[in-house]
User: Fold these one by one.
Assistant:
Number 1:
Amino acid sequence: TNRTFTMIKPDAVENGHIGAILEKITAAGFKIIAMKYTQLSVRDAQEFYAIHKERPFFGELVEFMTRGPIVSAILEKENAVEDFRALIGATNPAEAAEGTIRKMFATDIAENAIHGSDSDANAAIEGAFHFSGREIY
Ligand code: GTP
Ligand code: MG
């Protein structure tokens, strides 16, 4: 068993998809071991997405991720990182497979409904960024 980290992004929250997305996640066998409803500050978003700071879309990404509340969570499952990336689908929903969360709920490559960690190391870093030890069950 291992862990991944996710955020339901502001577009999906605005569009009323929190419940449907959590249903897909739990139906796929992920156990929620930490969860909160919160809003990122500009500094939070810049730090969280620091790896993309040289990209032309960095400013847009920070603006998007801070414009409203998100749901952040740590999920547990065997092969969590890889299986969760498969469940959410490609970054661009136009290229995402049928039945994936991004295919069903994302708007476009920028406003793509959900985040999933891309490695075990990043899952640990991202989970610790959002949750203290006492918030993980
Ligand atoms: P995350 O799970 O959110 O990390 O997405 P990803 O791993 O599928 O994609 P990546 O890490 O490459 O990009 C991070 C996020 O930046 C994406 O999920 C989008 O929200 C945003 N993004 C990626 N490409 C573009 C782009 O071309 N334009 C804009 N505006 N945003 C982008
Ligand atoms: Mg990424």
Number 2:
Amino acid sequence: MPHIIGRYALFYTECHYNSTTRPVNPVRPAGKLPPHGECNSNTQHTESILFMSHLITLIPGDGIGPEVTEAAVRVVEAAGVSCIWEKMDAGADMVNKYGTPVPDEVINSVIKNRVALKGPIATPIGTGFSSANVTLRKRLNLFANVRPAKTLPGVKSRYDNVDLVIVRENSEDLYSGLEHIVVPGVVESLKIISETACLRIGKYAFDYALRNKRKKVTAVHKANIMKLADGLFLDCMRRAARDCPEIQYEEMIVDATCMNMVMHPERFDVMVMENLYGDILSDLASGLVGGLGLTASSNMGDHGVAMFEAVHGSAPDIAGRNLANPIAVILSAALMLQHLEETEAAQNVQQAVEKVLFEGKHLTGDLGGKATTNEITDAIIRALQ
Ligand code: NAI
């Protein structure tokens, strides 16, 4: 039985190895191991080794969610990272049972483990329960949604030099869910912008730029029209920029940003924006690098709580047919490995995905191929080895 300590599971096991099969990171042995140089490939060792597994909440979600998250779990395990997955159900099926698409036990599991890998969850349009995704982000206080969009080798797209990251404020704006009917035929929907949330996302964007050796942050706004709301957002971005003189700072109106992203995407580096603009522009960015099936994202909160998921939805049109492209969730899992400081495994997964895309032999339908979800996943696992 493993001991659960914080977000790790620790257990001892007996391990037989030689210099070529010697366990390396990410299955981290705490016992004393002879360095590679001290044993040849024939030397056999047996040792009781302390293994550390990451405890991760796994939310398969709706539609293609279970298929693509299962693919990501297989790839993470093939990359040699020891994980214990705590599987949690959330989504439409939970509403009848619990009255909410996100039962408390899902929230408690993520708070305990601090890391979650999530599949897409469907949301009814216009009526019905409120979005499980918005509920998860709010209840877990996941205030920053980070979506990298980078040209991938071998993927047909309009540009070959895109490498930008959208940092989207995740907690307020028009997503506060504050709407009411003023009189029949007139609805008021409230856009909430607070100094606290803007300063927090501004600081996060500049910290992200510094940590990831980026050069520039672009603040995207519509302060010419929403002078108070977007004016406050801009004021906070300028304060965050003043605290980080190493990073270049610029501002751009959201409509001009759309045009510039389509015409000159290479000019952007890190982009920070409110919730609605971030929702729209991150899909635009996905389109620049080959579509939704390839775009990963992370939702970051305080105290290391983080949830990783693809940008795409539950794709009900292809659900359960082994047709979905799992790459966006696999790349989200690579972001998760990076967050867990499994840097080598994260890079290996990224490179394996790039290799499969470049070879172009095992591509799913959305990428112009005929491979199934299982076939492309198998190809990525082979590319890891
Ligand atoms: P969608 O992203 O599910 O599908 C749009 C189109 O892209 C469809 O033709 C679909 O087949 C295709 N597609 C999406 N992901 C794919 C993949 N991995 N491989 C191959 N093709 C893929 O968007 P849609 O139809 O607007 O939303 C469906 C449901 O998903 C809705 O209930 C929506 O609320 C939910 N959704 C959930 C999200 C989340 O959980 N983060 C994000 C976006 C939508």
